[in-house]
Amino acid sequence: MNKVCVIIGVGPGNGEALARRFSEGGFQVAMLARSRDYLESLVQQIPNTHAYEYDATEIDSVDSTFQAIEQKLGPVSVLLYNAGAGVFKNVEEASFDDFEANWRTNVQGLVAATKAVLPQLRQHDTASIVVTSASAATRGRANSAPFASAKAAQRSLAQSMARQLGPERIHVASVVIDGVVDLPRTREWLHDKPDDFFVKPSAVADAIWTLCHQDPSAWTFELDVRPFGEIW
């Protein structure tokens, strides 16, 4: 049986790094994102990767997408939920639509993907669901009301899932990224910062790979990762 990993939310940065890490580890990797052209460019670069156009907020397509993945690659054993929208406003400035948009991506999208993938995960002796989170999940800053509230809800959801699914040997974990991810746009924005200021996507991918291969006697639920210089 193939080892199959699904990554929801593949873009430059953590999503692409995860695709590379799990491909190197021998997985068939289904990459899901809204930009089909970008995914197809990665397929040309990364062996054993497969492109699926997908919007985490459009839940009507989730079942058909996961069925197509299973038919082509086999049952999924790892789900990496890397989708995460952010609106950074305070509670007065943010509209109801801002709050709903953040909730749809960070919470509803995770629920829909989990419901669709569970029958496949249960076909394996052990399986994993790992959610890419943020420090906003544990502390709500003044100008992050929509994002922080959605990430806090996502964290609580993941914890509930971990408690439910752990006895089935399905490891649910949340990775809190506390820092600025190294991307072309963040480098341009923070051009005066040294290399060690940024979170390396490849290092995040290594951490998530490790989570997915922990012994069930010592599972981690929440792992926070940050550069040594980050204030916390």
Q: What labels would you give this structure?
A:
alpha/beta; Rossmann fold; 7-stranded parallel sheet; 7 helices
Descriptive overview:
With about 230 residues, the protein is of the alpha/beta class. It has one domain (about 5-225): Rossmann fold. The protein is built from seven helices and nine strands; from the N terminus they run βαβαβαβαβαββαβαβ. It has helices spanning about 15-25, 35-45, 60-75, 95-120, 145-165, 185-190, 200-210; strands at about 5-10, 30-35, 50-55, 80, 125-135, 170-175, 180, 200, 220-225. The strands form two sheets. It has a seven-stranded parallel beta sheet with strand order 3-2-1-4-5-6-9, sandwiched between helices. Helix 1 (about 15-25) links the parallel strand 1 and strand 2. Helix 1 packs across helix 7 (about 200-210), helix 3 (about 60-75) runs parallel beside helix 4 and helix 4 (about 95-120) runs parallel beside helix 5 (about 145-165). About 40% of the residues are buried. Pfam families: adh_short (PF00106). This is Short-chain dehydrogenase/reductase SDR. It comes from marine sediment metagenome.
The CATH C-level class name = Alpha Beta
The assigned CATH architecture is 3-Layer(aba) Sandwich
Record field, number of beta strands? 9
Cα end-to-end separation: 43 Å
Can you describe this structure in just a few lines?
The chain is α/β, with parallel strands linked by helices and 232 residues long. Helix content is 42%, strand content 19%. It is built from 7 helices and 9 strands.
Give the helices and strands, then pairings.
Elements: E1 4-8, H1 14-24, E2 28-33, H2 36-45, E3 49-53, H3 62-73, E4 78-81, H4 96-121, E5 127-134, H5 145-165, E6 170-177, E7 180-181, H6 184-189, E8 198-199, H7 201-211, E9 222-225
Parallel strand pairs: 1-2, 1-4, 2-3, 4-5, 5-6, 6-9, 7-8
Helix pairs in contact: 1-7, 3-4, 4-5
Organism: marine sediment metagenome
Protein name: Short-chain dehydrogenase/reductase SDR
